[in-house]
Amino acid sequence: MPLREITTAVLVDGGFYRKRAAALLGKKDPEQRAAELLAYCRRHIRESRAGLYRIFYYDCPPLDKVVYHPLTKEQVNLGKSEQFEWMTRFLKALTRKRKVAVRRGEKLETQGNYILKDKPLKRLCSGSLRVEDLCEDDFVLDITQKGVDMRIGLDIASLAQQKLVNQIVMIAGDSDFVPAAKLARRSGIDFILDPMWASVTDSLNEHIDGVRECVTNRPESLNDPLHVNNMAKELEPDNVDDEM
Known about the structure:
CATH class of the domain at 7-65 and 80-107 and 146-223: Alpha Beta
Helix content: 25-40%
Distance between the termini: 26 Å
Shape: globular
Order of helices and strands: EHHEEEHEEEHEEHEHEHE
Strand order of the largest sheet: 5-2-1-10-11-12
Largest sheet: 6 strands, parallel
Radius of gyration: 20 Å
Number of strands: 12
């Protein structure tokens, strides 16, 4: 009996991917990160010896509100920040890529505020760090997004019910899409998780068909062709019709 052809959809939790990619592959400009994302997804396609249906990328547009910084006691216009420009260029670059669908969630405006990072907060509570020694780098913008998990779940359900693919690769790290993953598996879809070396909960492990990372963990990832110091060959050329 001949093996059935594999058609794969790659679903990417954008906030998760950007954080893990920066940790494993270094910080990059928006266009480099967009090209890297496609190259990384192609690794999964090659590993599965599959044809690509589509890459679905889920993220929220950058926040452009004015927020108060508790340390500097100044109003910060996020619409003029480097992060706003970076995200705008990154999403624009992705929308121009072949077989990439960008799914935008929504920002919860009321929760876009600066908070202390975990490490300085713990040091502050233990007494090893004084309030007057805090710096701007000790704070991070806390933005709650909504709609992303819902869109992921809807797309998984649609792919399963319409039998558009027989394999889904999910690049993510949380368990919010477990119900959709269960539906996909009941529909006969091979469901693979790529947590990019982040920890995976038992509840999530129970409802997937396997874990597969296409990058080594640090420090070995420093030698990866996609690392910012080594990436020239892996990202060329951008025409990938043969694999996609």
